[in-house]
Amino acid sequence: xxxxNIEGLCQHLDLGEVSEEFLFNxxxxxxxxxxxxNKNELVIKALSASNVxxxxxxxxxxxxxxxxxxxxxxxxxxxxxxxINGTILHxxxxxxxxxxxxxxxxxxxxxxxxxxxxxxxxxxxxKMHNIKFKKHLSLITRIPSYHYGRNVDGxxxxxxxxNEILSKPKQPKWLSLLFSNILIIENxxxxxxxxxxxxxxxxxVISHCDVFNxxxxxxxxxxxxxxxxxCGEIDATFDFLNTAIxxxxxxxxxxxxxxDKDKLxxxxxxxxxxxxxxxxxxxxxxxxxxYRRLYYLYTALNRYINPSDLVDKKRASRKIKVSLNYLxxxxxxxxxxxxxxxxxxxxxxxxxxxx
Length: 355
Fold this sequence. Notes:
single chain; five-stranded antiparallel β-sheet; alpha+beta; Aminoglycoside 3'-phosphotransferase, Chain: A, domain 2; two-stranded antiparallel ribbon; 14% strand; globular
């Protein structure tokens, strides 16, 4: 549950008198607000209790902001939480907040992403994977690990969720898609879960871990990376492949999610200018990407059935719809992965010849 009091927070921190406030329709857990005061324009993020429930989680948020500030020194522009009264994490009336200066830029939807944007994204991730973050941090600093998902004990009964939703007076539009793909979901989930159980992250890097279009604000055609909360150590191959796939997506003529293979190659070629890709681990990491998305489907279905409030239910519904759309992407990528591996080999050979 949230205990949000934006006006009270602004008075408490002397941020000015609030004249305008509205909730952004983004994110799955936190609640993010645009706030205008007589002193400034702000973005105030009210943090979900699950994100600040322990000292470890709170330190992870602070660490993410530190990583963002270090990234800025290496030419990766970002919007970081403001430090006020010696802290970036603010606790007021039993609610934690992060506060940012508002940047009046734009967020690009999938079909608005250009080739130039894909190149920018490939450069951001490649540069970040090469930064030696630890030399800027204390030796005793505990770097959080990326959350790939949790291993769910036993077999998931996906039909249970169909029946639960059918028992409600009003059904969402995506229910038919869930019902018609139950067998595909079961097979994908069980296969990828076996890979997840044996997965050991290798070639770890410290990364933003969420370099996707919804986490970039474009201002004067310059990308500014936002939402550093997921920062941590991550398998470099996983982060590369997961990010590359996301930047290749678009909405096709029938309104379904599809993949632009040319954009996938452009992102890959750009990334390779900064860092190598371990092609031997691409298939394993693709299985982990599948598991993570299906794990999110599982958690979103649980949230949809037992939401904390109406906003939570709407966000869970959106997450379910997106996750279901990924089923076609998994099939496309399964058929294309060998071609991507061959392309990476070819690019490596080309770089060697050019030296």
